[in-house]
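We close this part of the discussion by returning to an individual protein. Part of our work consisted of pairing the sequence of a single chain with a tokenised description of its backbone. No coordinates are needed to read the tokens, only the vocabulary itself. The amino acid sequence and the backbone structure tokens for this protein are reproduced below:
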Amino acid sequence: MTQADPNRELIRMFVDRIVKRTFAGETPAARLQQIGMFALIYMLERDEEPLTAARLARYTGLADGQVLTHLRKLLKRDLIKRTKITSKHGKGRSYQISIKHNAKTKRLIEALEMSSGKKS
């Protein structure tokens, strides 16, 4: 019998909390997709390169339309925001994606930070 890994148990505790409480009324697959996209945005939003839907599509390998579908759900839940920026080519506009810091996202952010060992 193998010994329990405390890091795995801690991660399990936080993921259970997020999955069961945060996206109520969604199918399990939809909850998992939204949690995954939220975690990616949280992870990538402070990089030098602006986080856009196109960058998320490149990073995940998802089609642009699939990324936009997930982003729309997070926008509707008031978990993320889009800010107009100039595209990296200097022509046209794009939208930078970031976490919207509010009461709804506080619990998700705390769980992500605690599971990664960060303290706010």
